[in-house]
Design a protein that fits this description.
Blueprint: H1 3-15, H2 23-35, H3 37-44, E1 53-57, H4 63-76, E2 92-97, H5 100-110, E3 115-118, E4 131-135, H6 143-156, E5 162-168, H7 174-189, H8 202-211, E6 214-220, E7 229-236
Parallel strand pairs: 1-2, 1-4, 2-3, 4-5
Antiparallel strand pairs: 5-7, 6-7
Helix pairs in contact: 1-2, 1-4
This protein binds S-adenosylmethionine (SAM).
The site of S-adenosylmethionine has 16 residues, from strand 2.
Length: 237
């Protein structure tokens, strides 16, 4: 089967559980998983392979957990794009999310397949994990809180443990500002009040990661979108 069709199978398998969480949750999941290149990249580049305990900070409605579960399911059935590495086999996926409504949607969709805590990442315990994923969240925290969260992420990981941090590149001009405004709009639609954003350029994010005990590389992560997002792939030193 053609890779595009296999991707649709994956998208269907990851979105289907959100039918239990209402129309908004279902269509939001389909739209985001289809349009956001980060989900595909995580599988296509094999970024989470060999990482069995995954922590998703600011997990929203739990899309990453649904995506990983769908990947495992599709891979086991032989429905897998040609040329991609094998699907990651996660033993536990834990999410932490501030918005009660998102936590509820995640729990309804994922059931016992993932744990979703209703808590603030500035104070919640991270436990001990193999990989931490933070997608489009850290800019909501002020600079001191960003530093403290990243230090605690480092403490939760072993040496060579993985952090996937997606951020907007504040050094990228108009595309970055477009992303900032669209982010504000989406947050308003999802029921947040107007939030302040604390952004940095890619270079500044990487400097902060270094300060917190990570070596990082940056990959552009907004293909097919008008934004200036970057995925920082960071390893604990
Ligand atoms: C743009 S959404 C991204 C959601 C998810 N990471 C994804 O990519 O689908 C940002 C999420 O971070 C959550 N968030 C922001 N500040 C937080 C905090 N201090 N603790 C926990 N979650 C937080 C928001 O409620 C929101 O769900």
């Amino acid at each position: 089967m053609h890779n595009a069709l296999l991707n649709v199978e994956l998208l269907d398998a990851a979105s289907e559980p959100y039918r239990n969480a209402g129309r908004f949750a279902y269509y939001f999941a389909r739209g985001k998983l289809r349009a956001d290149p980060v989900y595909r990249a995580i599988l296509e580049l094999g970024l989470l392979r060999g990482r069995t305990r995954v922590l998703d900070l600011g997990c929203g409605q739990g899309l990453l957990a649904a995506w990983l579960r769908a990947a495992e399911h599709c891979y086991a059935r032989g429905i897998w794009p040609w040329g991609w590495p094998s699907a990651p086999r996660t033993l536990s996926t834990r999410g932490i999310e501030l918005m009660a409504r998102d936590v509820e949607r995640a729990r309804r969709a994922l059931g016992s397949a993932a744990e979703v805590a209703h808590a603030d990442i500035r104070s919640a315990s991270f436990g001990a994990v193999d990989a931490v994923v933070i997608l489009d969240v850290l800019h909501y925290l002020d600079p001191q809180a960003q530093l403290e969260v990243l230090r605690r992420v480092r403490a939760a990981l072993p040496t060579r443990g993985l952090l996937l941090l997606r951020v907007g590149d504040a050094g990228a001009g108009l595309r970055f500002r477009y992303g900032q405004w669209s982010d504000k709009l989406v947050m308003l639609l999802r029921g947040h009040s107007m939030v302040t954003q604390y952004c940095r350029s890619t270079v500044q994010w990487r400097t902060l990661l270094k300060e917190c005990g990570f070596d990082s590389e940056a990959k552009p992560m907004s293909q097919g979108t008008p934004f200036a997002n970057v995925l920082l792939i960071a390893h604990a030193t």
